[in-house]
Amino acid sequence: MSTSALRALHVPGTPLILPNVWDAASAKLVEQAGFPVVATGSAAVAESLGYPDHHGTPVETAFAAFARITRAVSVPVTIDVEGGYGLPEAVLGTRLSDIGAVGCNFEDTDFENGGLVEANKQADRIAALKGAFSELVVNARVDVFITAQDQKAVLDEGIERARAYLAAGADCVFPILIRDTEVLRTFTEAVAPAAVNTVYLPNGPDFAGLAQLGVARISLGPGLFHFVKTQLQEKLTQIAAGERPY
């Protein structure tokens, strides 16, 4: 599948569902289940490699893991590169191209100084990334909602950031962790017809409900990784107690 075909899967109201993976084995399972795209999740990849999320993984270790995933499957792979691991955007684009990735998540959190990258600066970073790899499908994360106690209070800033990122060349915007469905609906309508990514939350709308809000892409984030980890912990507890695990 080409990058243009990947873009075509981002249809508002008929979203692309991405069960985020963390290694080659989970990537193969996603492909075998019939999903047309494999997407990594940074938190799960980092933990699977023994590092914390938020740029905790050394860049070479992270890209080695990404390369194993892209080699393991025949479907397109989009990589969660967090804020770029400190790489210049031109280098980041080249590295993604070299491992065969066709898309990436790119965050506007400032990992060095805390807070968020200034919106115009982040837009420039997105433009530079697209300049280095023009066909890359960039999913630009908008992180203002993560810690906001009142998500309506930061809605205008989130919309302004999204519009700036789209104008800079982003293919999709990702207002991560919006928990208020009306905030998500307003955000999606404000940037229409652009593609909006949201994350599935267990206590939020189901896939059909999110589709009705007009999103074009749904990520599961670290949810599947945590589910598998919980199942393994239960089996290990049974083994430690001398019980049959299966």
TrEMBL record:
InterPro entries: ICL/PEPM, Pyrv/PenolPyrv_kinase-like_dom, Pyrv_kinase-like_dom_sf. One of its GO terms (molecular function) is lyase activity. Pfam families: PEP_mutase (PF13714). Keywords: Lyase. This is Isocitrate lyase/phosphoenolpyruvate mutase family protein. It comes from Kibdelosporangium philippinense.
